[in-house]
Backbone:
């Protein structure tokens, strides 16, 4: 099943509740948390996640681009996130952290920067509900899709199949009408889209169009 998760990084931060409403029909709202250390950009934290979770019925998919996720990730579950993604490069104890996120009642997901090989984490996949393969260097919306990541998406899906895992495979960065089909063909089933949704006049229609393309 294909899922489309608009990234509010490309939305108007002064009108987040309205921007959530503008993508009605989306599966999840993707919330990019950046700390100015793990990535060279600073966005939002638990108070905004908590307010947004009360303002929308769409579940929140929190992507933590932060140092020390072992320390901070559980607070995002408590703030209302339905799914929490930490970065493999930042986690001290990813197995313990994934188990803690799940014990608190959210889906646990791990992200890989472009230079991080998926093969390193083959043994950890059964602990995760989702793997995020970044298709840009994390930090900013509106960057060009890195098509050199397509083989990694394929290898990730192959490893999941090899172990008989039903987990989701998310892609994030530069996903648009011109790149989503390649991602779907490579094995991704959860698609984050920021500028290609919020950069249009009709974000809800953009979500629907992306969904149809990915389902083809
Ligand atoms: C980038 C973020 C993405 C970003 C994607 O570091 O993780 O979620 O919002 O934006 P687009 O879809 O514009 O590349
Ligand atoms: Zn993201």
Residues:
């Amino acid at each position: 099943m294909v899922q489309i998760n608009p990234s509010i990084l490309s939305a108007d931060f002064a009108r987040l509740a309205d921007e959530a409403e503008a993508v009605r029909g989306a599966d999840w709202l993707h919330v990019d948390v950046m700390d100015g250390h793990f990535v060279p950009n600073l966005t939002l934290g638990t108070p905004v996640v908590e307010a947004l979770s009360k303002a929308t019925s769409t579940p929140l998919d929190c992507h933590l681009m932060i140092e020390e996720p072992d320390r901070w990730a559980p607070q995002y579950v408590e703030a209302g996130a339905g799914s929490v993604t930490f970065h493999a490069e930042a986690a001290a104890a990813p197995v313990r952290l994934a188990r803690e996120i799940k014990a608190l009642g959210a889906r646990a997901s791990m992200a890989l920067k472009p230079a991080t090989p998926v093969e390193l984490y083959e043994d950890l996949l059964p602990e995760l509900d989702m793997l995020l393969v970044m298709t840009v260097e994390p930090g900013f919306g509106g960057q060009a899709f890195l098509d050199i990541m397509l083989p990694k998406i394929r290898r990730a899906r192959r490893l999941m199949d090899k172990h008989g895992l039903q987990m989701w495979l998310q892609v994030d960065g530069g996903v648009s009408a011109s790149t989503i089909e390649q991602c779907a063909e490579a094995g991704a089933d959860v698609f984050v889209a920021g500028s290609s949704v919020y950069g249009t006049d009709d974000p809800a229609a953009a979500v629907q169009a992306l969904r149809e393309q990915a389902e083809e």
Summary: The chain has eight helices and eight strands. The chain has one domain: 3-215. The mean pLDDT is 98. The longest helix spans residues 150-162.
